[in-house]
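A reminder from the course coordinator: this example appears on the midterm review sheet, so study it carefully.

Given structure:
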């Protein structure tokens, strides 16, 4: 593709910002617009000197670009979109651009599922990098080993986070079907994205579209304990599929949790066993590590070298990221917002930090978490916390009253199960109570998929 002037609508989305960087790396002139400009993606774009116009306006299309990439945040009736159509400037979706212009003929490693995609994609990328494969990659977060969420491909492989969210108003299919999936890790299927999927069956149908596209020389690695995966996999007897997890082709045993991470035995289908030391916490990260190592073993890579490379993995921004600490308190930021992710995070941290008081901050911000679909599940999810501060759900104005998450009731129900819970609508309301709740040893977990009113910096003054 010759050098082009490319304009991106919704450029601060995690995938869009990553694509912007990829395209710039490949020699294109990139700029874009967004309504919600906040870190970490806004910081990354600024560091790349990629121009961001704040707000969507028809005049953003001047000077005229050669190509426009339309993010899924844009609707057909938006004035900027109408101006694009009237201009007859060529346009496409993010996922189509990635598949056709970047992945192209390369071997595509797609990490898909409801949970753990960013972490697993980042880890797979790092281990392949350590093995000398120099993969191109695109992740919906920022891996700390690379300090950016993307890299243009240098050789014949590309690793990508396979998002099941739709692509654009004119391309209403899951993003991952454009990614030419050849080697697929499928780590979970649960109901999510309530704004575009009506029920679990609709979510399953989306993942069937992924399996439909795995070629005969491709491979699928899936979480064995996930009943939803099994329910669709039976329709694909010809896929070269292997399982990971408990009682699986690739299994784990003798798990030990400690404050420096996790240790376990990896058991391969050929009867061999390998000791694995992982710097990450929680059983769900045992699954993530196991899936990466299993895929590489399936592909014939040196498993012992792959295991050794785990020691160098630095993690990701906003995924179990330690953002502040002093002699008695650690503050960890995480992207958890689905109740299963919240529960798994707390379970993992409770096993590694047994003596610390677990104080949680939670902002219901995603399209699903702002709805009452998981009203009861969130109560159970916080059962292993000692204290929970829950912010009023982010903008529910476009959600019907009888479909909204009732944040105050959630606080009452959490308290009813013996966990201290505090409702708040503004951060300024809770600092005195937060300081009063601090004990001799504390683990503070901040969970949101958004900006959370800048809590990540503000909390540092209160520990």
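Designed residues:
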């Amino acid at each position: 593709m010759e050098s082009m002037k490319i304009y991106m609508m919704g450029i601060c989305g995690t995938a869009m910002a990553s694509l912007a960087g990829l395209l710039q790396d490949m020699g294109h002139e990139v700029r874009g617009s967004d309504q919600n400009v906040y870190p970490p993606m806004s910081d990354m774009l600024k560091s790349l000197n990629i121009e961001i116009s704040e707000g969507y306006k028809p005049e953003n299309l001047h000077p005229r670009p050669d190509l426009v990439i339309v993010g899924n945040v844009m609707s057909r009736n938006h004035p900027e979109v109408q101006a694009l159509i009237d201009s007859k400037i060529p346009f496409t979706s993010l996922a189509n651009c990635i598949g056709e212009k970047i992945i192209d003929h390369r071997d595509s490693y797609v990490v898909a599922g409801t949970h753990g995609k960013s972490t697993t994609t980042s880890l797979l990328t790092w281990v392949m990098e350590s093995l000398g494969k120099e993969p191109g990659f695109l992740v919906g977060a920022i891996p700390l080993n690379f300090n950016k969420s993307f890299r243009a491909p240098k050789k014949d492989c590309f690793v990508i986070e396979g998002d099941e969210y739709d692509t654009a108003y004119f391309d209403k299919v899951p993003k991952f079907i454009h990614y030419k999936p050849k080697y697929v890790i499928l780590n979970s299927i649960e109901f999510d994205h309530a704004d575009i999927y009506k029920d679990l069956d609709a979510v399953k149908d989306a993942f069937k579209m992924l399996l439909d596209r795995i070629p005969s020389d491709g491979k699928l690695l899936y979480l064995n304990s996930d009943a939803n995966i099994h329910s669709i996999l039976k329709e694909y007897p010809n896929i070269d599929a292997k399982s990971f997890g408990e009682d699986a082709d690739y299994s784990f045993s003798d798990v030990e949790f400690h404050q420096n991470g996790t240790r376990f035995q990896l058991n391969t289908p050929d009867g061999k066993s390998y000791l694995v030391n992982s710097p990450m916490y929680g059983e769900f990260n045992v699954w993530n590590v196991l899936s990466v190592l299993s895929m590489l073993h399936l592909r014939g890579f040196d498993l012992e070298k792959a295991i050794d490379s785990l020691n160098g993995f630095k993690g990701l921004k906003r995924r179990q990221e330690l953002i502040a600490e002093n002699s008695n308190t650690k503050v960890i930021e995480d992207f958890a917002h689905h109740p299963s992710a919240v529960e798994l995070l707390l379970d993992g941290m409770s096993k590694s930090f047994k003596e610390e008081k677990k104080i949680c901050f939670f902002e219901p911000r995603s399209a699903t978490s702002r709805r009452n679909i998981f009203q009861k599940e969130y109560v159970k999810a916080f059962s292993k916390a000692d204290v929970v501060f829950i912010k009023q759900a982010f903008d529910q104005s476009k959600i019907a009253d009888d479909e909204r998450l009732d944040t105050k009731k959630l606080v009452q129900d959490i308290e009813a199960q013996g966990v201290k819970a505090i409702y708040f609508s503004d951060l300024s309301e809770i600092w005195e109570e937060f300081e009063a709740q601090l004990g001799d040893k504390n683990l503070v977990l901040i969970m949101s998929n958004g900006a959370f009113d800048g809590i990540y910096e503000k909390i540092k003054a209160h520990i």
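The chain has three domains: 5-89, 100-312, 321-462. The longest strand covers residues 251-258.
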